[in-house]
Amino acid sequence: MFEEQWEIPLCSIHSIYYAPVKSRFRKPAVPQEEISSYQRFEVVIKFRDSFMHTVTAEVSFNDAKSWAAELLRCGLSGSYHWRIASQAFHASERERYQQETQKFVHSYPMYYVVPGDIGLHELNRMAEHWQLSRFPVWVWSSLDGVSLLRSSNLASNTEVNWEAKSLNDKVLECVRRASKSGELPHRLVLNDEVTVVKIAAAYDRLRRLCSVDSHEQFAARDKDWLARVNHTGWLQLVSYCLSKASEAV
Predict the structure, then answer these.
(1) How far apart, in whole angstroms, are the C-alpha atoms of residue 103 and residue 162?
(2) pLDDT tens-digit readout, 69-113
(3) Which of 95-109, 198-212, 225-239 has the highest mean pLDDT?
(4) Which segments constitute the Myotubularin phosphatase domain (predicted)?
């Protein structure tokens, strides 16, 4: 985050503020377009001695050019198996008419990559059947044709929903055709107990443990440091992530 090579202990940071910054100043054609104009973000760090440091950076993978470069890096440039989809509204009336009913997924960036045979209407329907509307999106592909996608689980009522099953089968078939082996993709299901709240709580406990105000406090914690770190639950989460990553590889 800092251009200089500073070694900053966590205990010296009082608070961190984050805010999106518009990359261009113009009136959006429609309200949703205003969201896509935030291509940069600004972070202000306040230290305990009241010193302030501001960092401005680009928002990663929030534009079509970034995803096009990533597809090129993975050897998929020009591949008809994948396409860049957009949540941003466009200026033309025909496209606006098509996208007026588009379901906006707030936890996804403005642009993402999906199988090439999945159209806008199907994305809208998929958003209805995946939890939090997080349908499968492309993340990475190796040069030998293996691709990685991520999504939430299907909604609980999809087992008896023919449309959800049909859409899920189509995604699997699209991924199969995109792979050189021609095999159906392997599905990794994460533990439902590993929630965002649990991860945040474990990280907060680890951060508090690493934040010391004096040498005496550090010496007291250092005596049983490994036990204290283990008690935060962070190591268990890291171990679980590594085991799932190993399974994916």
Answers:
(1) 20
(2) 999 999 998 888 999 998 875 545 455 545 445 667 888 888 999
(3) 225-239
(4) 61-249
Question: Which segments of the chain are extended strands (E)?
Answer: 13-22, 38-47, 52-58, 82-86, 111-115, 137-141, 147-150
Q: Which helix (H) or strand (E) holds 83?
A: strand 82-86
Above 60 in pLDDT, residue 244? yes
Task: Give me the mean pLDDT over the 139-166 stretch.
Answer: 83
CA 77 to chain centre: 22
Amino acid residing at 114: V
Q: Residue 114 pairs with which residues in a beta bridge?
A: 83
Residue 54 token pair: 């501001």
- Look up the pTM and report it: 0.70
Q: What is the mean pLDDT of the chain?
A: 79
Residue 222 identity: D
| Cβ proximity of 151 and 130 under 8 Å | yes
The whole-number pLDDT of residue 107 equals 85
State the sign of the Cα–Cα–Cα–Cα dihedral 25, 29, 31, 35: negative
Residues 6+ apart with CB under 8 A from 237: 194, 198, 199, 202
Residue 126 to residues 113, 114, 115, 207, 248: CA-CA distances in angstroms? Answer: 15, 12, 13, 38, 24
CA angle 149, 154, 157 (to 5 degrees): 170
